Automatic annotation (TrEMBL), chain A:
InterPro entries: Class_I_gatase-like, PRibForGlyAmidine_synth_PurQ. It comes from the Archaea. The keyword ATP-binding applies. It comes from Haloferax sulfurifontis ATCC BAA-897. Its EC number is 6.3.5.3, 3.5.1.2. This is Phosphoribosylformylglycinamidine synthase subunit PurQ. Its main location: cytoplasm. The active site is at residues 84, 201, 203.
Automatic annotation (TrEMBL), chain B:
The gene is purS. It is found in: Cytoplasm. Part of the FGAM synthase complex composed of 1 PurL, 1 PurQ and 2 PurS subunits. This is Phosphoribosylformylglycinamidine synthase subunit PurS. One of its GO terms (cellular component) is cytoplasm. The lineage of its organism: Archaea, Methanobacteriati, Methanobacteriota, Stenosarchaea group, Halobacteria. One of its GO terms (molecular function) is ATP binding. GO terms for biological process: 'de novo' IMP biosynthetic process. Belongs to the PurS family.
């Protein structure tokens, strides 16, 4: 069962459950004050505005008690996917490197973006080809990826960058970078391949009725 | 025990873009002010009881380390005074 952790202020939890169910997974929302069910085989940290984005996006949720269980599950190899606010929570909790902070535009941005698949050799990207361009929606005010130069080089060397913002043809350019992210980074792996975060919303591009199913491949990562 | 106020100042590391500060700077310039740069800091004032100033500072330091600042993008400093 995939546990979609619902914090106060999460608002993509239902979308995640619906998209995962459509892919054939058993998925349920789990309130953050409740324990993770024993039968948890995967965890989604969904998008939204947990704790009203007080202090920094994801800062409060990252320190909530359930995150200890999430960290332990991740250490045991349970796949964890953080989306948008969930990506901020992943970075704030140390599950994944870097920080997602205020967009360079200083504005909330809600639009469709193109992403280039940088590493197709992970559970989260195995459905794609390396270099493939996919289209996903973003909706965030704090999505600018930041990391110091040394650790960024390590991240690149370790092939832990999953997606970069690009144009329709796959060119990674400043113009195609919606939020000023370092290296156009949109999604990264944690210390192990089983943990990933990304700012764009795969769960909003997974149902055929919505006209774009490019995100299904990311969610299919829970199959391992 | 003495009551102290620990002031925790959190700022972006040098070189990290601060879009809010940039926007504020441009707004000041629109108002006719001349300035070279503008930086935001966040300041937290924490009242706490501690045996001495060192203990108060150590506790505030840990608060900054674990929550108030994000070490990936922030530097912080702590100053303690009797309340």
């Amino acid at each position: 069962m995939i546990a979609v952790v619902q914090f106060g202020g999460s608002n993509c939890d239902r979308d995640a459950v619906r998209a995962l169910s459509d892919l054939g997974f058993e998925a349920e929302r789990v309130w953050h004050e409740d324990p993770l069910p024993e039968e948890t085989t995967g965890i989604v940290l969904p998008g939204g505005f947990s704790y009203g984005d007080y202090l920094r996006g994801g800062a409060m949720a990252a320190r909530s008690p359930i995150m200890k269980s999430v960290r332990e599950a991740a250490e045991d190899g349970v796949p964890v996917l953080g989306v948008c606010n969930g990506a901020q929570i992943g970075c704030e909790s140390g599950l994944t490197p870097g920080a997602f902070t205020t967009n360079a535009s200083a504005r909330f941005q809600c639009e469709h973006v193109y992403l280039r698949v940088e590493n197709a050799d992970t559970r989260w990207t195995a459905a794609y080809e390396e270099g493939e361009v996919i289209e996903l929606p973003i909706a965030h005010g704090e999505g600018r990826f930041e990391l110091d130069a040394e650790r960024y080089e390590e991240l690149e060397a370790d092939d832990r960058i999953l997606f970069r913002y690009c144009d329709e043809d796959g060119n990674v350019t400043d113009e195609a970078n919606p939020n000023g992210s370092l290296g156009n980074v949109a999604g990264v792996l944690g210390d192990s391949e089983s943990v990933a975060v990304l700012m764009p919303h795969p769960e909003r591009a997974s149902l055929p009725q919505l006209g774009n199913t490019d995100g299904r491949g990311v969610l299919a990562g829970f199959e391992g | 025990m003495t009551t102290y106020t620990a002031t925790v100042t959190v700022r972006l590391k040098r070189g990290v873009l601060d879009p809010e500060a940039e926007t504020t700077k441009r707004a000041l310039e629109r108002l006719g002010f001349e300035l070279d740069a503008l930086r935001f800091t966040e300041r937290y004032e924490v009242d706490l009881d501690a045996a001495d100033a060192d203990e108060a500072e150590a506790r505030a330091d840990e608060m900054a380390e674990r929550l108030l600042a994000n070490p990936t993008i922030h530097d912080y400093e702590v100053a303690v005074a009797e309340a």
